[in-house]
Description:
664 residues; alpha/beta; Immunoglobulin-like; 24 strands
Amino acid sequence: MNTNVPLNKLAAHYGIFDSFSDLDGNVQATSPDTQLALLVGNGIIIDNTAMIAEHLAEIKAQKTARHLPEEIIITTGQTNRILNQQTVDWHVELEDGTMRFGRQNDSQDADIILPIMPSGIHNLIVKSARQTEEVTLICAPKRAPSVASLSGKSNIWGVNTALYALNSKSNHGLGDFSNLSTAIGAFATEGADFVGINPIHAMGWSEGIISPYSPSHRGFLNTSYIAVPSKNGTAKKSEFIDYAEHKTCHQLALEATFSSYQPSKNFMEFCAVGGRHLSFFALYEAISEIYGSDWRSWPYEMQQVNQISQNLQWQLAPRVEFHKWLQYTADQQLSYVQQNALSSGMNLGLYLDLAVGSRRGGAETWCASDAVADHVSIGAPPDYLSPAGQNWGLTAFAPSKLKTTQYSALRQALRTSMRHASMLRIDHVLGMNRSYWLPDNGAPGGYIKQPFESILAVIAIEAARAKTVVVGEDLGLVPRGFRQTMRSRGLYSYSVLQYDKNDQGEFNPHAQLDPQTLACFATHDTPTLKGYHQKTDIDWWQKLDWVEEAQVGASHQQREYEVETILTQAGQQKSADFNSFRDGINNILAASPASMVSLQADDIFEVEQAPNLPGTIDEHPNWRRRNAIEVEKFTQNVKLKQIGQLMRKAGRGVTKANGDRNEC
């Protein structure tokens, strides 16, 4: 038990949990070293007890002086009342620069009555006889858009495919946006209303990391997916992707294309809209070509974005222009992909994925240093599968900084992902409620609370503007009331059939799924449908010594029992035949109450090996397996046609919505 009361108070003020319960139900107290380290993550450096007392006194004085909260969430489309007990003049500086004025007299109803205002983050300035206060107003719709409101259907289905894995003689060795359009055409023909892909955040021009969940910047796009003509268009691709070879060939092709490019009006407008965010990112990319992709190893005078000399910026101007053009080109091609999806008959089209964080030393932590946590990584506490815990090597937003900057960095990431997508999956959405931080100094990890209600309101703002359905990946244990709060803002839950079990380890009846859900059997982190049936994941556990030899037989028996249980739920006879299992799973998904159902392309084409095995780096070919079927041949694939027939027969994607309780 930590008995340092002043430190506990200071830590609590910044949202640091004093303890958490592990998987065994034991309470793990947050140590003083961890509290201090997590305070540093919030930009609060405390060296002694006097500094703690001084900081607490300052916080108390600020609270005493204020009559209004620093931040208030209000609802767009209606008047809003703010509690007030004195005569005040007030005005609101709206996000678009316009103003609203008012006055409240305490001899009447002193509450501030705000008129109907547009959604956005605005500034309320309140002046009394004694002081002036500023309040951040987060004006949000009640809910994010629903499937029914955007698609006109009560339920839909779609396909998830790895963009990098799309196989075509036309690309440079990695699937590209042109290949994605081809795939979308095939899926749309069979009645799919959306196509989900891996995160397409910027990875870094000079970076060699390949995991799409370890991006450099979530506010910009991965230019490796830009379609550019390949000179080697007849070569057959191997089973595995050679990222280094692709980078060399692809980047040369991009450089050659840019050398003859004349800036267009659209490009200039794109740069103007991108503003300083785009300029900072392009500058980071240009500097990384000289000093490497981790800004923490750059010369000291270059480690802060606002300290870059004008002389260096002038020298790098041509490369900055190049990296702006790359973002423009990627954005244009992604826009075309979405337009093609909608014109092909899909009601929603692109379903993108927002990673939980950005990598340490990457562009996002350099460009948005005023919003991210310092000297900590996000991860997970120890559990049965990872006794030492997990360090994801990613950076989280610091709650205090996020509020101070009015959620600017978060909004940029959301806008980029939503701009050309009608669906967005937020990976590990629990991280927007609380994060597990691991200090760089070796202190134990601890949890910190994020401003969940405010973040949900921000998501609702951006989703309503972009007309995007939002899915929160909420797998595993979550705090009581978490899913209800998430759904109340219009976000959809995420159900993975092979994990959807009760406390006794039995599968939940899928007829009881909440309609506000996206349901699937597999993800990029799980066994494929065929791999699950063939126990391929257990074979990998055995190969990697993750399971004792004596337990292998029991694991096989448990899997066989699970397969039989799924067949029973599907109303089918017990069978060892894969086709029966496949049909049972697909029938369960098609008939479920879930508004959205997603099938992995790997499962449609009956791929056995998974794209990623969590907990491995080089032991398993993560993110490197290429599709065996060329994307141009998807339209001829009998298995894809059978899926379309099955979905239509079940009435999925063909039933019109009758009203909608989820309208934003």
